[in-house]
Amino acid sequence: MPARRIRVRGIVQGVGFRPFVYRLAHANGLTGWVLNGQNGVEIHIEGDETALDRFTAALRHDTPHAAQISSVTVETVRPEQITAFEIRHSDRTGAPSTRISPDLPVCEDCLSELFNPTDRRYLYAYINCTNCGPRFSIIESLPYDRVRTTMRAWAMDEFCARQYDDPLDRRFHAQPIACPCCGPRYLLECDGMLEGGIAGIVGAAELLRHGRIIAVKGIGGYHLSCDALNAEAVIALRYRKFRREKPFAVMTANLDIAREIVDLRPAAEELLLSNARPIVLAPAKINLPGVAPDHHELGVMLPYAPLHHLLFAAGAPDILVMTSANRSSEPIAYRDDDARERLAGIADAFLIGERPITRRVDDSVARAGIFGAAVLRRSRGYAPGAVATFPQSRPVLALGVDLKNAITLAVDGQAFVSQHIGDLDQFDCRHAFQETVRDFLCMYRIPLEDTVIAHDLHPEYSSTQLALDLRGSTHIPVQHHRAHIASVLAEREAWERRVVGISFDGTGYGDDGRIWGGEFFTGSIAEGFTRVLHLRNAQLIGGDAAARSPVQCAAGFLFQLDGTPNLLEPPFHFPRRYTDCLELASTQLRTFETSSVGRLFDTAAALCGFTRDITFEGQAAIWLEELARKSPPADPYPFPVTDNTLDFRPLLSALIEDRSAGMDPVVLARRFHAALASALWQAAAGFCAQNSTDLLVLSGGVFQNELLLADIASRANRSGIEVWTNNAVPSNDGGISLGQAAIACFASQNISYCP
Ligand code: ZN
Ligand code: FE
After folding, report:
1. How many domains, the chain?
2. pTM of the predicted model as reported, rounded to 2 decimal places
3. Which residues make beta-bridge pairs with 75?
4. How far is the CA of 125 from the centre of ligand 1 (A)?
5. How far is the CA of 42 from the centre of ligand 2 (A)?
6. Which of 230, 263, 347, 692 has the fewest Cβ atoms within 10 Å of its own Cβ atom?
7. Domain-embedded: residue 634
8. Is 138 among the domain residues?
9. What is the DSSP letter of 262?
10. Which tens digits make up the pLDDT trace of 27-78?
11. Domain annotation covers residue 92
C-alpha cells in the first residue's frame, strides 16, 4: 500500500483546512492523519495510487475559501498500516512560524444562517465559522486556540461545543464560535440607556436614520457612522471630529448600491469583494455633500462584519459614512473605555460589542490602478499576511519610518508586514508602534539576539531610536528612497534584477543629510542602488513644517528664479508670509536643502491657486491632480536635465508666465503633470539603455497620483520598457519597511549566522 507525506504551508491554520483534508480523505477512501504542525499542516495518507493522486490534486485546487497555500511538498513514505483517517492533536513544541490569518469577512453560509429565523444564530452579530470571522484582531498569542483569543472569557455551551468538536461540521475548531446563549452581545448606549442584542442594533439603525452620529465597534476598532445622504449629519461629524476636508469613506448596504454611487471597473469590483474588503477608491457617480469634497473619487466598502449586515437589515440608511473613530489624526479607538472617553463629544450613541479587540486594525484602502491593484493603506484583511519569501532564513525586523509607519518581520524567510500604525509624532501611535514590535516578536517567538534590525537613516526618527534601543545581532540603516524601490522588487521576489528605480515622495533623509524626494537610481537589491540623478535642490524653509504651507514651499523653489513677478498680486494672491519666507531663504536661516518632488507639487499647486494651508497630508498635490483632470491632455512644460539634476526653474518660469498671461489653471496643472511624466520618462529611458535593462521601477507617495501614472503608462506602451509599481504594499511610506527588510537581508548575508 503506497503512502505519502504532504506538507502544506501558507495560511492553512484556523481556516478549516484540517476538516477539509478529513473530508477529502474520506471521499477518496484513504486512511492516515492530519495535524497542525509548526510550519503548516502535515498530512499522512495511505491508499491506492490513483486515489492518492486525486487527493493530492484536489488539495491544491479545492481549498477552503479563506486558505492561501504558499507551498505543497509531497514525499513518498513508508505506510503506517493505519485503518482510518483521523485529525491528530497538534505537535506544538518550538516556535510557530505558521502564518496568522488576516481577519475575514462573514461568509455566505453564515449570512444565510444569520437571516434564517429557524437558525440558532438568527440575527446574532457574532456568527462565524472556520471560513470566516475575526482572526488577527482577536488573537493574543500563538498557536491559534480559543484560550489565546479574546473569546476566552466566554465558555462554549453544549450546542457550540458539539459543532466545535465535529470534524464534519463547518465550525470544527472555529475558535471564535459562539451563539446567543453562550457568546458576547452588542449593546446600544444612548443617553444613559442600555439596550442589548438585536433591539440595540435596531435602535442604532433608527438613530442613524434620524441623522445621529453613532460610534460602532467593528472588527479592528470603532467607526463613527452617520447617514451619508444627510449633509447636516456629515457636516456635524466633520465639525466634531476636527476633520475639515479629508474625505470620508462610506459603506453601502450591498454591491448594487455601490455600483450606483461609484464607477466600478471589473478590477475595482474584484477588490471590493475580495477577502480583505478594503475601502476602494473609485470615480464618484453622485455627489454626497461634504463626504469627499473636491475629489473625483469616493472611498467605498461593503459590509464585512455580521453586525454591518444586521444594521442595514434593521433599516439603517443604505449609504453610511464609516470613518475611523478618532479625533483628527489620532489613532483609531478600539478599547471600549477609551472610545467612550475620546468620542464623548463626537458620538450621540455607542454601539458596543462585548468581544474585546486585541489590537487596532484600521480599514485598508486600495484602488484598481493603472498598473494593477494599489494598496494605499494596508491593514485589516491584509495584515499580518506574508508578502514575499526572502532567500535566507535569518530573522529580519524592519521598523519603517515615522510617517505612515508599518513594520516588517521576516521569519524563516517569510516577510510579514504589520498593520498600518500611523504617524509616530503622535504619542498614541508611538505607543502602538512599540506594542506592535513587541507583539510581532512575541507572536513568532523571535529571539532578538539573532535578528537583523533595519531602520531608516534619519538619526532623529522615533523609529530609528527604537531600533537602536533594541539589542539585535546587527543594525542596518537603509536609505529611505532605496527602500521604496526595494519594496517593489521584494514584492516580486526579484532580488537580482537590475533596474532603473525612480522614487518620488515628500520627504526622506538622504545620504548627504539633505531631504531627498526626487531620486533616480540604478542597481538591484543584491548589489545595491546608486543614485544617478535627482531633482535640483531647492530650499525647504522651516524644515518639515513647510509641508503644511504650499506657499512656504513655493518660496523655497522660486527663490532661485530670476525675474519672478510680484506673487502677492493678482492672479496669484500669495499671502504676505510668502515674502517673509523669501527673506528667510536669502538669509538661509532655518532652511534645508531638498530635492523633494512632493514639495515641487506643492509649489505648482500654490502657483495654480492653492495658497492656504493644507488640512491633511498630501492635500495640495491631490488638489493639483484633481485640477489637471479637468483639462484635456496638454503639452509638457520644459523640465530639462542641467548639471546632472532635473532643473525645475524653466518649468516654474513657464508656469508663472502662463498664469500671468491669464491661462486657465486647469491647463497649467495638466502641463505640469505632463512635464513630470515626460522628463521622468526621458531620463529613465536613457538610464535603461546605459544599463542594459528594460525594467523601470516606480515608488514613493507621488506615484499614488493616477494621472501621472497614466501619462507614464502611455509612454511605456510605446516602448520596450516594462514598468513595475507597488501592488501588495503601499507605494507611500507604509511600504518602506518591506524594502528595508529586503535590503538588510542581503546586506547581512556576509555576516555569519547559524540558525
Ligand atoms: Zn462563516
Ligand atoms: Fe517616502
Report:
1. 4
2. 0.94
3. 5
4. 12
5. 41
6. 692
7. yes
8. no
9. B
10. 999 999 998 877 789 999 999 999 999 999 999 888 888 888 888 999 999 9
11. no
